[in-house]
Design brief:
The structure is a single chain. This protein is of the alpha/beta class and 308 residues long. It folds into 2 domains: 3-178, Rossmann fold (3-Layer(aba) Sandwich), CATH 3.40.50; 182-302, N-(1-d-carboxylethyl)-l-norvaline Dehydrogenase, domain 2. Helix content is 43%, strand content 20%. The protein has 12 helices and 12 strands. It has helices spanning 10-21, 33-41, 78-88, 107-114, 164-169, 180-200, 212-228, 232-235, 238-248, 255-261, 272-281, 287-302, and strands at 3-6, 26-30, 45-49, 52-56, 60-62, 69-74, 92-100, 119-125, 128-131, 141-146, 150-153, 174-176. Helix 6 packs antiparallel against helix 7 and helix 6 packs across helix 12. It is globular, with a radius of gyration of 19 Å. The chain starts with a strand and ends in a 6-residue tail after the last helix. It binds NADP nicotinamide-adenine-dinucleotide phosphate. NADP nicotinamide-adenine-dinucleotide phosphate binds at residues 6-12, 29-31, 35, 75-78, 80, 84, 87, 101-103, 125, 127-129, 131, 267.
Length: 308
């Protein structure tokens, strides 16, 4: 059975190349016929691993292809996910399964509401990849920059799907997680404690060591939020973990910092924005988190970037 991957970006190409190499049938869904033509002209996608580049002629198509979709990896940004799935909904076969790779929270529920007939599996990944825009192959050349792991889970059904064997065969490190929401909330909380401040202070993650009280206060409020959302496990030792990440990634710029520096839209609405909206819905007053959100919104607007 073929996999379809929507979003021939960093993670989409990383998954497509490994599935193809593992002998698993896979098709990429491109945004429109102009993008499909450009992709075909490039002769497929190129994955760079440990300095070695290899091309994979993964077949491409657009959303209006008539072929039914049974297994879909949604590999676009969180802010594109709902509209992308709306365009594909008529092609989903009965019993179709979707893997949602989006960072943060909020987009998964929006996607699931659009396609109630499909099983939605949420994913959380620590793998790292980026598009090497400087190369001749341009957008279709992806560098596998960070080994990591992907956790997959379904909040409505803890039975793992049989196709995890495809990931095994393709060398995609993964684990079925009976509590994927806890993982996603924990990752969101880490992100909220580090990424917005790294943008506002225009610093590498290590620069946050100069603001220990601000980080500690945010962690306290994030723990309150996690408890009130019924996610106490995601709150365990959050502050210590945030400090550990700040140390371990001291020389790195956060993903949000990189997006802003490149003039790209951030996923704020699904990270800090989602945290604040959830707190508000629960009438939970978290003044420092709300003030941080407000500062970030103003910063993004001042830099001509979407703030939602
Ligand atoms: P990306 O490189 O920007 O790729 C997203 C792709 O989706 C782009 O190629 C975009 O096409 C495509 N797309 C958007 N809407 C589409 C549509 N309607 N039809 C077809 N294609 C569409 O993003 P990414 O870095 O792979 O990130 C994907 C998600 O994974 C994000 O939520 C991110 O936070 C998460 N994540 C990424 C990494 C990483 O290392 N990259 C790690 C962990 C998690 P265009 O180019 O035409 O806009």
């Amino acid at each position: 059975m073929s996999w379809h991957i929507l979003g021939a970006g960093s993670l989409g190409c990383l998954w497509a190349a490994r599935l193809a190499r593992g002998g698993v049938p896979v098709q990429l869904i491109l945004r429109d016929s102009a993008r499909l033509d450009a992709y075909r002209c490039a002769g497929g996608l190129t994955l760079v691993e440990q300095g070695r580049a290899q091309r994979y002629a993964v077949p491409g198509q657009t959303a209006d292809d008539p072929q039914p979709i049974r297994r879909l990896l949604l590999a676009c940004k969180a802010y594109d996910a709902e509209s992308a799935i709306t365009g594909l909904a008529p092609r989903l076969a009965p019993g179709a399964e979707l893997v949602l790779l989006q960072n943060g929270l909020g987009s998964q529920e929006a996607v699931a509401a659009r396609v109630p007939q499909a099983r939605c599996i949420f994913a959380s990944s620590t793998e790292g990849a980026f598009r090497d825009g400087t190369a001749a192959e341009g957008e279709w050349r992806v560098v596998f920059a960070g080994q990591g792991h992907t956790w997959l889970g379904d909040p409505l059904d803890d039975q793992p799907p049989p196709w995890l064997a495809d990931l095994e065969r393709s060398g995609i490190p993964h684990q079925w997680s009976p509590d994927i929401l806890s993982r996603l909330w924990r990752k969101l909380a880490l992100n909220c404690a580090i990424n917005p401040l790294s943008v506002l202070y225009a610093c590498r993650n290590g620069g946050l060591s100069d603001h220990p009280e601000e980080v500690a206060t945010l962690c306290t409020e994030l723990c309150q939020l996690l408890h009130s959302c019924g996610q106490p496990a995601a709150a365990l030792d959050l502050h210590a973990d945030v400090q550990r990440v700040i140390q371990a990634t001291a020389a790195n710029y956060s993903s949000m910092h990189q997006d802003v520096a490149r003039g790209r839209r951030t996923e704020i609405a699904y990270l800090l924005g989602h945290a604040c909206a959830t707190a508000q819905r629960q009438r939970l007053v978290l003044p420092h988190l709300a003030a941080l959100h407000e500062r970030l919104v103003q910063y993004l607007e001042a830099h001509g970037l979407p703030s939602h």
